[in-house]
């Protein structure tokens, strides 16, 4: 994909982090869990992707696709019946991409105890209806935490680019050998 379109004319050139903040709450049902009643990792990643996309939509006001989801630690299990709350905001906007941070908590509905269960960084790319990349507004970090995340996002982008170049130099980004997909069951 090579062409980059100017940003949507109705978009302001700068948006605040607060204007991108998004939140989703889910109750964990049997369909979301494994046979031991714990939330499936893939289901949690789906919720993270959706909540991250909400912040990216609010920033870009156009279509977005997920370009990358960084390493995720599943810190503790989430159980059947728990209330899962996910919060997201854009950490930094680049040219057509945005890094979004998502943090996830689980609430035990009987004890009311709330614990942090996962965090993730995702990169979304803004596109139009035809799939052409779109420039996104700049992001204005205002609070000390927003400024810290904004600065850290640049370091993570540099790390991602270096890692991607390393994989390309090594041959294939997702070769069978690297993923272990060439191993017969
Ligand atoms: C994401 C996608 C639009 C990037 O298109 P591309 O032509 O490869 O784009 P480029 O390499 O020119 O990079 C475009 C932007 O995306 C960013 N980007 C591309 N791949 C990335 C990756 N793996 N991780 C982080 N950022 C990435 C680049 O840094 C660049 O950002 P900038 O414009 O802010 O500087 C394209 O790869 C795509 O459509 N992927 C499939 C998306 C999808 O279907 N997602 C659902 C998950 S299954």
Unreliably modeled segments: none
The helical percent reads 25-40%
Domains counted in the coordinates: how many?
1
The radius of gyration is 18 Å
Number of strands: 10
Q: How would you describe this structure to a colleague?
A:
This protein has a single domain (13-171), classed as Roll (Thiol Ester Dehydrase, Chain A), CATH 3.10.129. 28% of the residues lie in helices and 33% in strands. It has helices at 41-60, 144-170, 176-179, and strands at residues 4-5, 14-16, 22-27, 63-69, 73-74, 83-93, 97-107, 114-127, 133-134, 138-140. A hairpin with a 6-residue loop joins strand 7 and strand 8. The mean pLDDT is 92. The structure holds coenzyme A. The site of coenzyme A has 13 residues, from strand 4 and strand 8.
Concise structural overview:
This protein is an alpha+beta fold. Helix content is 28%, strand content 33%.
Write the layout of secondary structure elements.
Blueprint (H helix, E strand, L loop, with lengths): L3 E2 L8 E3 L5 E6 L13 H20 L2 E7 L3 E2 L8 E11 L3 E11 L6 E14 L5 E2 L3 E3 L3 H27 L5 H4 L6
Parallel strand pairs: 1-9, 2-10
Antiparallel strand pairs: 3-6, 4-8, 5-8, 6-7, 7-8
Bound molecules: coenzyme A.
The site of coenzyme A (COA) has 13 residues, from strand 4 and strand 8.
């Amino acid at each position: 994909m090579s062409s980059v379109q100017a940003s949507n004319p109705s978009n302001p050139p700068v948006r605040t982090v607060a204007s991108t903040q998004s939140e989703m709450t889910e109750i964990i049902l049997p369909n979301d869990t494994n046979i031991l009643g714990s939330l499936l990792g893939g289901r949690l990643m789906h919720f993270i992707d959706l909540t991250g996309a909400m912040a990216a939509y609010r920033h870009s006001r156009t279509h977005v696709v997920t370009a990358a989801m960084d390493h995720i630690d599943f810190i503790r299990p989430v159980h059947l019946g728990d209330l899962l709350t996910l919060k997201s905001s854009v950490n930094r906007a680049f040219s057509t991409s945005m890094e979004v941070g998502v943090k996830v908590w689980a609430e035990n509905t009987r004890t009311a105890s709330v614990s942090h269960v996962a965090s993730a960084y995702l990169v979304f790319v803004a596109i139009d209806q035809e799939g052409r990349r779109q420039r996104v507004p700049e992001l204005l970090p205002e609070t000390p935490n927003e400024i810290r995340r904004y600065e850290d996002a640049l370091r993570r982008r540099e790390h991602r680019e270096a890692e991607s170049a390393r994989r390309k130099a090594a041959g294939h980004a997702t070769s069978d050998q690297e993923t272990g997909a060439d191993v017969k069951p």
